[in-house]
Amino acid sequence: MSVNSFGRLFRFATWGESHGPAIGALVDGCPPGLALGEADIQHWLDRRRPGASSLTSGRAEPDRARILSGTYEGRTTGTPISIVIDNIDARPADYPADAPYRPGHADHAYDSKYGLRDPRGGGRSSARETAARVAAGAVARLVVPEVEIAGRVTEVGGEAEEARWPALIEAARARGSSLGGVVECLAAGVPAGWGAPVYARLDAELAAAIMSINAVKGVEIGDGFAAARLRGEENADAMRPGAEGPLFLSNHAGGIAGGISTGQPIVLRAAFKPSSSVATPIETVDSAGQARIASTVGRHDPCVALRGAAVVEAMVALVLADHKLLHRGQCGGGREK
Asked: How do residues 208-236 score in pLDDT, each as one tens digit?
């Protein structure tokens, strides 16, 4: 069976396809009594919504969240929270059933696994699914109000100068191509002690969560690969005595040591590949194994990293909410500062 859920105590599952009637999320394990309305979810969905910028997909989806269960008079009840987002601007006709595999996309992999695939924008492999993650992440943020989570794009097409990004993206779009990018996310306010030392390491679970996002091909925590080029004394985060615990002189570890949060800000970066749905002709094959040329039409992001920042934030929130509840379950709340 495929796995469509994530988490241990705070769990969520998503469902739906890119050009089906709707997508959605089911959130289970949310504590009762938290104030939650549709506007709380909508705020975060609007940050990810397509069509909000000339540099993103032209698909005009309002992404209006509807809560079907799990709340009463504006508060969570502790029962499963079901969230639905209708697909308003679906265009399945843009994707003929006999379309060849798009190189770099999941078309061939899905066909190999299931023996069939949904050609309508990639079905469930489409980044459209991530709207449901953002909705679930909005609920997770309510569980960790002490944590401030902020993601931002730091690089597009190998360029770190933000002023150059619009021209680079428009040029790629005009060529029928796409660009990759890097998203950095900081989570400030995570107390020391969340995580586990071996099989539920906080850094490992954050990495798994981020790697589950469409188009992400790499994750760094703290200095990441740059740490491999440092000496031990350079990489170590020196400490001095402080009034409420150690004062760290650096944060090479990215806020996590031994799989457990240190109390420093958690810092991670996600590398998004260029979208595989490009108009540039590429050699490929079809489901019958015949040689074909792939040239994708439809509405696609020339740089998925731009909207990916909201998704990275959501996955960080979902992991942290789960680990807060796991920590309380084992250690109680007394050790949190």
From this structure: 999 999 999 999 999 999 999 999 999 99
Q: Determine which helix (DSSP H) or strand (DSSP E) holds 233, and give its type and residue range.
A: helix 232-235
φ/ψ (deg, to 5) at 33: 90, 0
Listed residue (301, 300, 299, 281) closest to 291, CA to CA: 281
Q: Which residues contact 36 (CB under 8 A, 6 or more apart)?
A: 67, 71, 74, 75, 76, 81, 139, 142
How far apart are the C-alpha atoms of 206 and 202, rounded to whole Å?
A: 6
* 3-state class percentages of the chain: helix first, strand second, coil last, to nearest 5: 30, 25, 45
Contacts of 98 (CB under 8 A, 6+ apart): 286
**pLDDT tens-place string over residues 26-82:** 999 999 999 999 999 999 999 988 766 667 766 667 889 999 999 999 999 999 999
Question: What distance in Å separates the CA atoms of residue 286 and residue 123, rounded to the nearest whole number?
Answer: 17
